[in-house]
Specification:
Elements (H helix, E strand, L loop, with lengths): L31 H10 L12 H19 L10 H11 L7 H5 L8 E3 L4 E4 L5
Antiparallel strand pairs: 1-2
Amino acid sequence: MRSTSPGSIGCPPPETLADLGELHKGSFVADHDEVMARLFRFPDRPAGEGWETAAAALARFTRAIDQLIQAAEGRDLIVVSHGTVLSLYLSHLRGESHVDLADWARVRMPDYCVVDTSAMRLVQPFGAW
C-alpha cells in the first residue's frame, strides 16, 4: 500500500485551529453526565471548577467556523473536533437555546454529520451512518 499526502490528491494539508478545540474542562468530575447536563442547561455558567462556559465555547467555535467558511469560498470543508462543541454548534444552527442531552449522548466515537454551509443547516445528524 502506498501512502499519499493530502496535497497529492488535491486536498490542502490539514490545519490545527485552537478555536475548534473541545470545551475547556479545568477539572476531572466523577459525575460527568450530570455535569454535562448542567453545562447544557445553564450555558452561561461553568459546569465545573475551571470549566469554560458553553456560551464561550460556542462563540469561540462559531467564530472559527465562520472564518473557515469565508476562506473556503464555496469549497467543501471537513472540520474535525469534539462532541461537546459540535453539539453546541449544531443546536445553535437549529435555533435551539440548549443542547438536548440525548442528542449529545448519541454522538459516537468516531462520528460525523453534514452541514450545508450555503444554507447553514444540518443535512445529516450524528449517528446517521
